[in-house]
């Protein structure tokens, strides 16, 4: 009863892909990670700004637009540009998510609950990743317990916005194939943001 | 969100996999007929795909002026009454090491009545548009799309609300039993004492809001002027890369004597002397 997808599309591969990005981000200098974290946090509440940043980094447009990069000192700009692929990976994942999710993520970044959220998302994706239909699952109480009241509400908001049928009052939920891509993007976002936050 | 869930349900009812739900009511007007959308052709992950991004221009903005204006074709109005009741788990029983013992019923419902109409383009107009020429001076947004290697699409059909509509959903948890849990959420439910927690959301969506759309890919033909509208299978590139033949004539190709390479490049290529490096 599982999707016969190419091996490259199983959860392990997603985990590997995300781990590679996390590893690369971890190797960036601490101040750059910190700057990236705060730049993305500032732009998260503005979908247009997030899209503009992606377009700029993606299309080599920083030199002829009045962007913050063109106004940066050369050494800082170079470091930004060196970290471009990892930033683009993160931005692409973020752009899959909705405005509401961006708000919730920004709140989560400020409250530093990204690792707990990541673990919860992973616990949903791992056992269900290959199932193409609606199946029930139960969230691990220990993972839920690690989030405080508001954190729990915000995390469930993030999950619901992906299309998952879950409610904070109920540890049981239903897996939906339509939720797979946004949930994977949420997993990627939480992972890389968490790595940046560790700075 | 409530809007997105409704538009997704509508797309399911419309039955066509070519329809795409609009996700955000605030940007719904950007998915009207003949509006242009862009999408990244290559992404760094294979596990998610980028959404369509409206570019705030229509197809007419990139075509040379013409006296013929495509007339929108309206379908009959139809009404969708969607009342979904979801009983996530009839009985919720959890027992874990955290002294959790919950028993109850969780219900979620979504209710709306949508009157919608599809605005599309006639096959004749579509054919006519494909014969039109692209403006000589490329608009800046097109240049940027070309630089990034984006693909461009045009909205060919938009499903719009014919009346202002109120979307509504509610979720409730009827809980019984004890809640000796450390998680404040469950504890809060008991503290409220009623054993029933209800959350309701409503949203008023104005008339004319686009709920779903169909798109076709825009492909610039090799001469760089005429356009061709094709299906949305994403397999072509909007901006074709230069072909080898063009490279041969536009760039001086110097190659070292190598039989295989000479064979590969000799046909149709003007041979040039090999200059010393």
Question: How does this structure look, described?
Answer:
Helices cover 65% and strands 7% of the residues of chain A. Chain A has helices spanning 11-26, 30-44, 47-58, 74-82, 84-96, 99-111, 114-128, 141-145, 149-161, 180-197, and strands at residues 135-138, 165-167, 170-175. In chain A, strands 1-3-2 form a 3-stranded antiparallel beta sheet, with helices on one face. Chain A is elongated, with a radius of gyration of 17 Å. Chain A is mainly alpha-helical. Chain B is α+β, with helices and mostly antiparallel strands and 277 residues long. Chain B has 6 helices and 11 strands. Chain B has helices at residues 2-14, 123-131, 140-148, 184-192, 244-250, 259-266, and strands spanning 20-21, 35-40, 53-58, 72-74, 78-86, 103-121, 150-161, 165-176, 196-205, 210-220, 227-230. In chain B, strands 1, 2, 3, 4, 5, 6, 7, 8, 9, 10 and 11 form an 11-stranded antiparallel beta sheet that branches. Chain B starts with a helix and ends in an 11-residue tail after the last helix. The relative contact order of chain B is 0.18. Classes of the chains: A mainly alpha (199), B alpha+beta (277).
In short:
Chain A is 65% helix and 7% strand. Chain A is mainly alpha-helical and 199 residues long. The longest helix of chain A has 18 residues, at 180-197.
Record field, number of beta strands of chain B: 11
Low-confidence runs of chain B? 88-104, 173-195, 244-277
Q: Helix- and strand-based class of chain B?
A: alpha+beta
What gross morphology of chain A would you assign? elongated
Number of continuous helical runs of chain A: 10
Rg over alpha carbons of chain A:
17 Å
- What's the pLDDT, averaged over the residues of chain A? 85
Q: How are the strands ordered across the major sheet of chain A?
A: 1-3-2
Biggest interface between protein chains, with counts per chain? A-B, 48 and 42 residues
Q: Give the averaged pLDDT of chain B, no decimals.
A: 70
Q: Which ranges of chain A are low-confidence, i.e. pLDDT below 50, for 5 or more consecutive residues?
A: none
Distance, first to last CA of chain A: 42 Å
Report strand % of chain A: 5-15%
**Sheet bearing the most strands of chain B, described?**
11 strands, antiparallel
Dominant shape of chain B: globular
Give the oligomeric state of the chains in this entry, treating copies of one chain as homo and distinct chains as hetero. heterodimer
C-alpha Rg of chain B (nearest Å): 28 Å
Q: Secondary-structure element sequence of chain A?
A: HHHHHHHEHHEEH
- Largest sheet entry of chain A: 3 strands, antiparallel
